[in-house]
Design brief:
Mean pLDDT: 88
Number of strands: 44
Low-confidence stretches: 7-21, 113-129
Strand content: over 45%
Helix content: under 10%
Structural class: mainly beta
Shape: globular
Length: about 800
């Protein structure tokens, strides 16, 4: 592997790419030196510092203010000239950290010199991504078109797909997911969730932020993924209509164990979408609607278990899932004047899930079936989000005050029906879970441009309340723990404030910020619960961030990051009710779970050339109170209880390399490699459910990583072709290891006028499967999940 990586680097580091530039808006006020009166109609021109070549210009307004937009980063000279005043030249550095720069007050001295008028012209340059943020368009990811947001992210540089519908940044699933820059219950207010609920057809772009500033909530040690919904800004009426359809699970990866219901085969996928926009004068109306219907072989896991107290057990967990997701987002922008903008928007999502599961248990040679556990999960998730915002632009360009109110309601209505088939009897059991989540956020942000950067600050207040209720209905000889049901109420209050200062000159850039959060969490548990009692915690903590950069020249930059972040337990992480979607691996929350704090250090270097760039980054993370699921058994039972715990200290050190290269007029590639070392220090925890059981783990360490090669080809007849290959190396998981994984995706697209046609296939070689080894006190098991990963899709989009 090391030779392979070294070879790839030697081949591609000599290739070349197109560097893009950020644009800056410059502003200031021109005054008379003697009386400090504002000067109108002063000519302000921008020139190159190297040869004084004229770039752009403007004149001051009646209040002496001026503004020049679309300035590319670089070194310039500002020239101020006016009849009756001495001409003044001033050096200027336009950097990449701020989109707005203020030169403050410019004083001119009176004279009798006459200056001819300046001709005003403009120049628009390309816009580049910053080193702390990467931006991608799902429309360019042809091989995953027609799927969900989770599908769209799988092929992005630095992102890998984990289990349970989560994405990983640099090997960690502690990622905060935003929608249009805001947290919602749709994708999780704490840990991430629901990415497979969002159709990729609704997304305009995806931002990946590995090193968030103090402006963002401190949650998520791995970073932030910001999903930005589509919203056109063209004048008049316009939009887009699309339809994608496909089939998955065309072949069985592994046949069922005897005497259970068949696996889903030839699973249909269906995704119609509609985007509408109407803009006229001061009003902009927008709408995005999608329906994502899928059948999926959601899980097909074969497991061999060995217990110290008994014979081996062979089992299978198969889930045939049908999902129908309807989402819609609509809103209106109203701009009564050039200083104020009001936005009101709403988002609705309804997800209906039917899961039909089979879990047989056999002896070692499959001659005797010991038990068959069948279930039907009937779940409806409903999310409604309301957002209202006001943005005020002051007279000084770039000086902005913004206020937002966001409210989210999320209902989880979940029913499970179980059939417990034993050799001597059959039991019918069920339970119902109802959970309502209410989240209200009020935020205010202020930006003030400075001569060499900007100041930014803000406040936020969050109120979150989640009442839950679990009701068990036991059958004959029920295995359900009915005394672990009842009600529980989760309440959270988080006020926060932040300040951030940005400075840059010709060679250096500094971005320093501090966020302070107070968290007060209360978890009320019904007094009849057999294990847990009411609990909670509160803290006030600082979360600093700093970014230092040194510009070697126009093509090369060195950057250092530091930030401190937190992963607060989500409500489902501390939820006291056992979950029985696996008959013998019971998942339970832990109200005693506490936040995980992480310090991250990163050193990055970026070099650009005319057809590409190379970006290597060294990083190191130190985690305290690492959150992990820990499995234990009680006595001679075969039941494994998986409970969230704080497992002590852990570390991750690695090197991520991203190479983007345009090989020719018709071919380009992007190579992303991430190698890291995981270390989990030894720890001891106490699982309280269903009985106190202590577990001690030794120190673990492993070197892991992943390689992702994404290539694009422009074929004749205006056909675009994409080919993506992904390799994930073995890694450690709580109490064990996960084996390597490999897959290849491909897609093709053709545009004819306003018509777009595409076809794609994921995991075309049908090689992707997830194998794990897990060892606990008194048990060991090896599992391999042959879930559906190969899907073929075709689609059509029309713009109008």
């Amino acid at each position: 592997m090391k030779r392979f990586i070294s070879g790839i680097l030697l081949v591609f580091t000599g290739l070349c790419s197109q560097a893009q530039k950020n644009t800056v808006t410059l502003s200031g006020i021109v005054k008379d030196t003697s009386g400090q009166a504002a000067l109108a109609f002063v000519n302000v021109t921008l020139h190159k510092a190297s040869d004084s070549t004229f770039i752009s210009g403007t004149i001051t307004a009646e209040e002496g203010r001026f503004s020049i937009a679309d300035i590319a980063p670089g070194n310039y000279l500002l020239k101020f000239s006016c009849l009756g005043y001495h001409t003044k030249w001033q050096p200027l550095l336009a950097g990449q950290l701020s989109n707005f720069l203020s030169v403050g007050n410019i004083s001119l001295q009176r004279s009798q010199v006459s200056i001819n008028e300046v001709v005003v012209t403009g120049k628009v340059d390309e816009v580049s991504e910053k080193m702390d943020k990467k931006t991608f368009s799902p429309a360019a990811n042809i091989s995953q078109a027609g799927g969900s947001a989770l599908d769209a992210m799988k092929n992005l540089p630095g992102v890998t797909a984990g289990q349970d519908g989560k994405v990983l940044l640099r090997g960690s699933d502690k990622v905060m997911i935003l929608i249009d820059g805001k947290q919602t219950a749709l994708t999780g207010m704490g840990g991430q969730s629901g990415l497979d609920n969002i159709p990729a057809s609704a997304i305009a772009k995806i931002e990946i932020i590995n090193n968030p500033s103090a402006k963002y909530d401190a949650n998520g040690n791995a970073g932030i993924i910001n999903i930005i919904y589509k919203k056109e800004k063209k004048e008049g009426f316009n939009g887009k209509v699309g339809l994608a359809t496909g089939l998955g699970a065309l072949w069985e990866k592994r046949e069922n164990l005897p005497d259970i219901r068949p696996q889903y085969r030839a699973t249909p996928k269906f995704n119609p979408s509609l985007s509408l926009n109407y803009r006229k004068n001061k009003v902009n109306f927008f709408f995005q609607g999608d329906n994502l219907y899928t059948q999926t072989l959601n899980k097909n896991e074969f497991t061999e278990k060995w217990y110290d107290h008994g014979e081996p057990v062979i089992q299978q967990v198969k889930r045939n899932r049908t999902t129908n997701i309807i989402t819609g987002k609509t809103g209106i922008d109203w701009q009564p004047d050039d200083k104020n903008l009001f936005t009101i928007s709403g988002l609705f999502s309804s997800e209906k899930i039917l899961d039909r599961g089979d879990q047989p248990f056999f002896n070692a040679d499959l001659s005797e079936r010991q038990r068959l556990w069948q279930f039907l999960e009937d779940e409806l998730k409903t999310t409604v989000t309301f957002s209202a915002g006001w943005q005020h632009q002051f007279k000084q360009p770039g000086r902005v005050l913004q206020m937002n109110l966001n409210y989210t309601f999320h209902r989880e209505d979940e029913k499970y029906f179980f059939t417990n088939i034993m050799p001597a009897y059959t039991g019918l059991d069920s339970f119902k879970l109802l959970s309502d989540e209410h989240v209200a956020d009020l935020t205010a942000d202020y930006i003030h441009p400075l001569r060499f950067g900007r100041f930014e600050g803000g406040v936020k207040f969050r109120r979150r309340y989640i009442p839950t209720n679990m009701q068990f209905k036991p059958g004959l000889h029920s295995p359900l723990d009915t005394t672990a049901g009842g009600w529980a109420n989760y309440g959270e209050i988080i006020p926060a404030l932040y300040g951030m200062f940005v400075f840059e000159n010709k060679d250096f850039e500094i971005e320093a910020g501090m966020r302070v959060e107070y968290v007060d969490l209360k978890y009320e548990v019904n007094p009849q619960h057999n294990t847990y009692r009411s609990n909670g915690y509160h803290y006030i903590q600082p979360f600093p961030n700093i970014r230092l950069a040194y510009r070697l020249n126009e093509q090369n930059k060195l950057t250092m990051f530091y930030n401190r972040r937190v992963d607060r337990p989500n409500e489902v992480d501390i939820r006291i009710f056992p979950k029985y979607d696996d008959a013998e691996i019971i998942k339970v929350g832990n109200p005693e779970l506490r936040p995980q704090f992480t310090n991250t250090f990163e050193l990055g270097y970026k070099t650009n050339w005319h057809s590409g760039y190379l970006y290597p980054a060294l990083y190191h993370k130190r985690m305290d109170a690492t959150i992990s699921r820990i499995g234990t058994t009680v006595g001679n039972s075969n039941l494994i209880y998986n409970v969230f715990q704080n497992a002590g200290k852990s570390y991750q050190s690695g090197l991520e390399i991203t190479l983007s290269q345009k090989l020719s007029r018709w071919a380009s590639l992007q190579l992303n490699m991430n190698g890291y070392k995981n270390i989990i220090e030894g720890f001891t925890v106490l699982n309280r459910y269903p009985e106190p059981t202590r577990y001690t783990a030794p120190r673990e360490e492993a070197f892991s990583g992943n390689i992702k090669l994404n290539s694009m080809f422009q074929l004749p007849s205006k056909i675009e072709l994409q080919l993506t290959a992904i390799y994930l190396a073995p890694d450690i998981v709580p109490q064990g290891k996960i084996y390597s994984r490999f897959s290849i995706d491909m897609g093709a697209k053709k545009i004819i006028g306003r018509n777009e046609f595409f076809v794609n296939a994921t995991d075309i070689a049908n090689t992707l499967r997830i194998k794990r080894d897990v060892t606990g006190n008194g048990f060991t098991y090896t599992s391999t999940d042959y879930q559906e990963t190969q899907v073929f899709r075709i689609g059509y989009n029309y713009k109008f």
